[in-house]
Design brief:
Blueprint lengths: L3 H10 L3 H17 L4 E6 L4 E6 L7 E7 L4 E5 L20 E5 L8 H12 L12 E6 L12
Parallel strand pairs: 1-6
Antiparallel strand pairs: 1-2, 2-3, 3-4, 4-5
């Protein structure tokens, strides 16, 4: 029987080593920044998603890491409604916005910190004072390759 932490480690290991390192280091920063958040993990068809939420419902997600074969993004579930004076958010949907990460150090950038703070403040359900925990919500039976294909 594997623990949720061991399962998540296995999901991340499927990726190219550089992407896996970035995902792990970004997760460490977010876990420290949001110690009371529930980490919801979805090992989906297209990507590995690790949400930092105020409850075990995906709709209560504040931010998430989206891990793809060639990139890692910090995603704001309700990012379209966040103030973005420096224009660092990408995306044009009605709800979600994201920042492509080159390094976990980007998470300490004042503009990114301000966005995370705004997302916390706008959360429909506030974070609690209890310690956060990890939940594996779903594992897709069929998945795209986690490492880039060589052409």
């Amino acid at each position: 029987m594997t623990t949720p932490a061991q399962q998540l480690a296995g999901f991340i290991t499927k990726f190219d080593p550089a992407i896996a390192r970035l995902a792990r280091s970004a997760r460490v920063v977010l876990r420290k920044r949001l110690p009371n958040a529930v980490e919801l993990v979805y090992d989906n068809y297209n990507a590995l998603a690790i949400g930092y939420c105020s409850t075990e419902r995906a709709s209560d997600c504040i931010v998430s890491l989206a891990v793809f074969p060639r990139s890692v993004a910090l995603s704001f579930y309700y990012g379209a409604g966040l103030p973005d004076p420096t224009g660092i958010l990408s995306g044009s949907g009605k709800q979600n916005r994201y920042i492509s990460l080159d390094s976990a150090r980007q998470l300490s950038d004042p503009a990114v910190e301000a966005l995370i703070g705004a997302a916390i403040a706008k959360a429909k359900v506030p974070l609690t004072t209890r310690k956060g925990y990890l939940v594996i919500k779903s594992i897709s039976a069929k998945q795209r390759p986690r490492r880039p294909t060589v052409k």
